[in-house]
Amino acid sequence: MRYPIVQTGMGWVAGARLASATSNAGGLGIIAAATMSLGELDEAISEVARRTDNPYGVNMRTDQADTKDRAKLIASRGVKVVSFAQAPNQALVEQLRQAGVVTVATVGAPRHAIKVASMGVDCVIAQGSEGGGHTGAIPTSLLLPSVVDSVDIPVIGAGGFYDGRGLVAALAYGAQGIAMGTRFLLSLESTVPDVVKAKYLAASLADTVVTTAIDGAPQRVIITEKIRSMEKAGRLAAYLRAIRAARAFQMVSGESFLSLLKEGKSMKSSQELSWSQVIMAASAPMLTKAAMVEGNLEAGILPTGQVVGEIDSLPSVQEIIDSIVVQAKEILEKLRTA
Question: N or C: which end of the chain has fewer CB within 10 A?
Answer without folding.
Answer: C
